[in-house]
């Protein structure tokens, strides 16, 4: 059963929404449930950004599937064949899945017995394996299990696999390609955001490559956020907004840590500092400010945006409503387009490297071919006769 505001660190939930104000809490809960009933994604987007997000796991069980476009009829049909995935061919990455699942549930829940944790790990393994076997083209990445464990803790069994499958194929597909290049292309947008918002900070941060953001952007922050209530609330916003919003959240966190970051001069220490999230983040403030940052400097205004593939989730999932209407087959089609682009780019780079390594030989061949043509072409011969002294002939 989904839990409402589970306490995972021994303290009470923060009441930034003034949760002691029961009328305000009741009003917001009513608004969210009404938006869920109407499947109104626009209203859910606004409510997800506002303080407290979707408030409870019981509400998230309704809101998250809507944002991801989980079809109730398809879900019921899936339930009838829920065991059939076990008969499908094994996915090539299942060995790594087992290793990562063994390391799951490190920070939360912290009140389970070992037997309960073992059961959750078994469920997590089944969830990931089912999604991968049903979408065998997807490539598992380390950290995927961090995302899936949040879905396992929030959503009921009947909804988990469908929600994670759609998230994987339509929202985080770039990270499940056979190359890291699309992920790196996303990271390049973070310095662009910083350049637009704070040129001095950008100049300082640019001393190191943006790989410091890889762990958080790959895992929707699930790898580094230690409190269950925080990551569940953050997922409210990330699922309600387009995929690029994750990059703006990270950029906003960097902007909030401006003074701390300027204290680091060595590139290695700068990278280390940027790659570690502070534990005292005010996530509600970060989310609101990230939304404002997004409005001021939208993705299409960023210099590196043109380098992002048109098949990237950053572009195919720009409108959450449109993305929710896409099918898993659409996700597969986008995947194949981007995979072919990556293969072509790899072949192009290999040819360029080969050409550069053999540039002297290629230049000699070109010069030789030009000399032969020069001798045979009448027009060039006439020009040569006209331009050179007669004693050369």
Automatic annotation (TrEMBL):
Single GO MF descriptor:
GTPase activator activity
Entries under Pfam families matching the protein: RabGAP-TBC (PF00566)
Q: Cellular component per GO?
A: endoplasmic reticulum membrane
Q: Which keywords does UniProt give here?
A: GTPase activation
Which segments constitute the Rab-GAP TBC domain? Answer: 54-242
Q: Does the keyword Hydrolase apply?
A: no
Output the GO biological process annotations, alphabetical, semicolon-separated: endoplasmic reticulum to Golgi vesicle-mediated transport
Protein name, per record: Rab-GAP TBC domain-containing protein
